[in-house]
Amino acid sequence: MSNDPLLQPYQLKHLTLRNRIIVTAHEPAYPEDGLPKERYRAYTVERAKGGVAMTMTAGSAAVSKDSPPVFNNLLAYKDEIVPWIREMTEAVHEEGAAIMIQLTHLGRRTRWDKGEWLPVVAPSHHREASHRAFPKKIEDWDIERIIKDFADAAERMKAGGMDGVELEAYGHLIDQFASPLTNELDGPYGGSLDNRMRFCFDVLKAIRARVGDDFILGVRYTADECLPGGTSKEEGLEISKRLKQSGLIDYLNVIRGHIDTDAGLTDVIPIQGMANSPHLDFAGEIRAATNFPTFHAAKIPDVATARHAIASGKVDMVGMTRAHMTDPHIVRKIIEKREEDIRPCVGANYCLDRIYQGGAAYCIHNAATGRELTMPHSIAKADRRKKVVIIGAGPAGLEAARVAGERGHEVVVFEAANDPGGQIRLTAQSERRREMISIIDWRMSQCEKLGVTFHFNSWAEADTVQAENPDVVIIATGGLPHTEVLSKGNELVVSAWDIISGDVKPGTNVLIFDDAGDHAGLQAAEFIAKAGGKVEIMTPDRSFAPEVMAMNLVPYMRSLQKLDVTFTVTYRLEAVEKSGNELVAHVGSDYGGIAKQRTFDQIVINHGTIPLDDLYFELKPASSNLGEVLHDQLIAGRPQTAWRNADGKFQLFRIGDAVAARNTHAAIYDALRLVKDI
Ligand SMILES: Cc1cc2nc3c(=O)[nH]c(=O)nc-3n(C[C@H](O)[C@H](O)[C@H](O)COP(=O)(O)O)c2cc1C
Ligand code: SF4
C-alpha cells in the first residue's frame, strides 16, 4: 500500500472514497435536451477510469423551471433524467469511483429570456451584473415550491443511483438568501442570520426527509464573500459551524469570494498568471474551526500542491477539476509513478470562458476532452510503421509529432527557429501567460520519450523533405501577422507580434487597431503601456477583444485600466499617412458617415495571421493526395484515402494556422484528429 497522502482512502460516512482527489462540480455544457446522454457519460466515465475518487457530475443542475440554465446545464426537474443518470452512475461505479451531482436554483443568476420565460426570483430586486436580469422579489409560495423542487430533484438523483447530492449555494439562490447584500426580505427568511439561513436549512431538511441517511449530502457555499456588506469571514465561520451542527450534511465544500461579476468569479476560480491555491489556507481554517469533512478546489493544478493540501490537513478531499479536463488520468499516473507524464493544466480557462459564451467546454490543449466518443485520450499503435515528416514545431506540429510517435511511427520534425513553440513562445513572453509554455514543454518531453527526431534552426525546403523519403508530410508552419488591411499606408504600421517579440520598440502615443480581438492585441497594449506609452485600442466591433472572453479579460483590465489605455469600439482604421514625424490615422465606421483624423507616433495592427504555405504548395504536385483532406473521413475518424496523383510518393497534409488563422485549440485538434488515423 502506498504511503502517498493523496492515495489514502477516505471514509465519508458509509461511502469509502478510494483516494483523496475529486473532480468538483463543473458543467461542461455537454447535455442534450438537458439530459446526460452518451457524450456526457463518456466524458464522466473517462475521469472515473483515470482513477479519481469521486466525480461531482454536472454543475448546477437545475431543480426548477424558473432556474433556467444559462449554459446548457442538466435539467434535474425532468423525470426522464433518471434512466440517463442511472446509466452514468452504473458506468462510473463499475470503474470504482463514486459519483454525486450538484443541484441548484440559480435565483437571480440567470435570465428571464431563457427556458420557459418565467420571471427570475431572488430575495431582493438587486440584479446580478453578470446575468443582468432584474429579479422579482421571491414570495412565500415561490419558497415553498422551490424547497419541494429541491427535494424532488434529490429523490430523482437517488433513484438514478447517485451516491449523493451537493447544493450549489455560492452565488446562487441559497447564498442569495444568506448574504445581507442580496436578501431584503422581511419575515421568516430575511434579517437575522437565523432567518437568512432558514431557506438553506429548509431545503436540506426537505431533501433529507426524502433521501434518508444513507445518501451523502453536502453544501458548496461561500464562507467569505470578500465584499463590503456581504457575508464576512466571521459570519462565514458561523455559517460553517451551523451547517455542521444541523446534522443534515456530511461535508462542507468551501468557497471564498463572490461570483456576481467576471472579476469576482475569476478570483474564485483563478486563471493563469494568478496565484496557485489562493484559498487553500482559508479552507484549512474552516476545517480547523469545524473539525468536519472539508472539500475544496481553486487552482490546485499540480500533484505537489494537491499532496500538500492533504498532507497538511487543510482539506480532506482536494479538487483538481480543470486539471482533470486537461488530463483525466492523473491518479493512474500517480499510482504508476509517472507524474511527469501528466498533461499540465495551464490555467488558460478556455474551458470556462467558452461555456459562458454559450459553447461546450474544451481544453485548450487536450482536444479529446469532451470528445471522448470520437477522440482518444490514449493513442493506439498503428498496424504499419510509417515515416512521418513534420514541418513546424508550434502547437500543431508538436501535437502531430506526439500523436504520430504514440502511433509508433518514425517521426522527424524540422523547425526554422532555435526553439519549439511558435506563437506560444511569443504568448509566453507576457509574465501573466508564462504558464502557456507548458503546452510546448509537455509535448517536447513526450516526444523525447517517443524518440521523435528534431532539427531546429532548419529551414526545410521541398528537397530536404523529399530526401527523407516520407510516407506522410505534415505542414504545420503557422502563419505571419497579417497587417495589410488598410487602403493606404500599410507600410507605415507594425504588428502586435512586432511589439510582443521586442522586435519593434514601443511608441509613446500609440493606436492599436485590433479587429482580430484576440490576446495579441491586448498583450501588445500591455507591453506598450508598461513601457510608458499612451495607448488607444480601437475596434470596429461592438466590444473589444471578443476572442479573449470574460474571465481571461479580467487580469488584462486590472492591468490596463491602471495604465494609460483607452478603449474605443465601433470605429475602423481605414488608412494611415505620414506627416512629419507623426502618423495620421484616417478613422471611419462600419455604420457610415464618419471621417476623422487622429495623430499617433506608432500604429499597431492586430488582424490575425496569413498562412506560411509556400512549402505546402511546392510539395503539393509531388504528393499522392495533392494535399486533399476528405472531410467525411476526417469527421468519421477514418484514415485518409484521397488519391489524386498516381506518381505521388507521400501523403501531404496541412494543419493549424498554416491553413488559416485560428487558435491553439483548433491547431491541436487539427493535429490529433488527422494523425490518430495515420
Ligand atoms: C467548465 C467549468 C464549469 C464549472 N461549473 C461549475 C458549477 O456549475 N458549479 C460549481 O460549483 N463549480 C463549477 N465550476 C468550478 C469548479 O468546480 C472548480 O471550483 C474550479 O474549476 C476551480 O477548481 P480547479 O482549479 O481545480 O479547476 C466549473 C468549472 C469549470 C472548469
Ligand atoms: S482550457 Fe486551460 S484551464 Fe481549462 S482545463 Fe485546459 S489547460 Fe486547464
Textual characterization of the structure:
This protein is an alpha/beta fold and 678 residues long. It folds into 3 domains: 5-65 and 72-358, TIM Barrel; 387-480 and 611-676, Rossmann fold (3-Layer(aba) Sandwich); 483-607, 3-Layer(bba) Sandwich (FAD/NAD(P)-binding domain), CATH 3.50.50. The chain is 32% helix and 18% strand. It has 22 helices and 27 strands. The strands form 7 sheets. It has an 8-stranded parallel barrel with strand order 3-4-5-8-9-10-11-12, surrounded by 6 helices. Helix 19 (550-560) links the parallel strand 20 and strand 21 (565-569). Helix 3 (140-159) runs parallel beside helix 5, helix 7 packs across helix 19 and helix 13 (395-406) runs parallel beside helix 15. The protein starts with 9 loop residues before the first strand and ends with a helix. It binds flavin mononucleotide and iron/sulfur cluster (SF4).
